[in-house]
Amino acid sequence: MDMISEAVATAGAGRAVAVRNRYAGSWTTRFPAINGAGLHIVRQGAPFLIPEHGDPVRLGPGDIVFVPQGPPHGFSSEPRPFRDLPPERVPSPDPDPYDVDFVSCCYHLDRGRAHELLTGLPDVITLRVDDPGVRGLADLLGDHAPGQHPGDDVALPAIMDLLLVRLLRICHDRQGVPPSLDPAIARVLTSIQENPGKPFSVRQLSALARMSPATFARRFTEATGETPGAHLTRRRLDQGARLLRHTDLPLAAIAERLGYATEFSFSAAFSREYGTAPGRFRRRHRDVAQG
After folding, report:
1. Hey, which CATH number is domain 183-290, 3.40.50.620, 1.10.10.60, 3.30.70.2860, 1.25.40.10?
2. What range(s) does the HTH araC/xylS-type domain occupy (predicted)?
């Protein structure tokens, strides 16, 4: 699995949320910080992006605001300081007629960290995209964002996955991001992602990277911000969360797939990372989806 696919798969372990925003006249709204990645697509009008740090940015139809790390930010009908925004998002009154229409979505991770390709990007990226594929996906996202029709719970994360893939490709082609990782570390990360149930040791991973264990541990931690052991555990549990959210596999089957000796050991590790038992995690997210 390539690094962009891996980043999107990791983000997809989170809960997919989307809202449609329509405003008229003078208005402001703030999006709080989240543990995850999000984006906004302007469909009509010329709102101002209000970043937490930096100057307001005038947007137009077709512009995309990519927020790969989930920092707080906002939007407004006029340029203004971030401190003047309301403390939380102001729901769209959905006026008719409206001056501004933009759709917002995010993957909200319950626990854990975003993929290193996302954490290595700037806090907020604005893109003017002349791509029929992206425009088509933006239209689909706007159609499914209200979540009022059968199948929206399945369609929404699929559309968001495709948009995230497109945006990461565009970022790479236009701006040279995501940053290139050390090829040896990238090879190890890919192997971990493709084999979440394999009981890797640091010595095995360092051999894959063709480094001594000490050198590998240092360079891996510098590249990812985690020790190899912590990263491997998190990747396994991220995959576990994704399987719990999107499949009906029994806990024993998930535990075996992820390399845990027993269902109990998987449940204990998952509870430490996510703060809740796997079964309760699955029921909670199904209740949210059905609600």
Report:
1. 1.10.10.60
2. 186-284
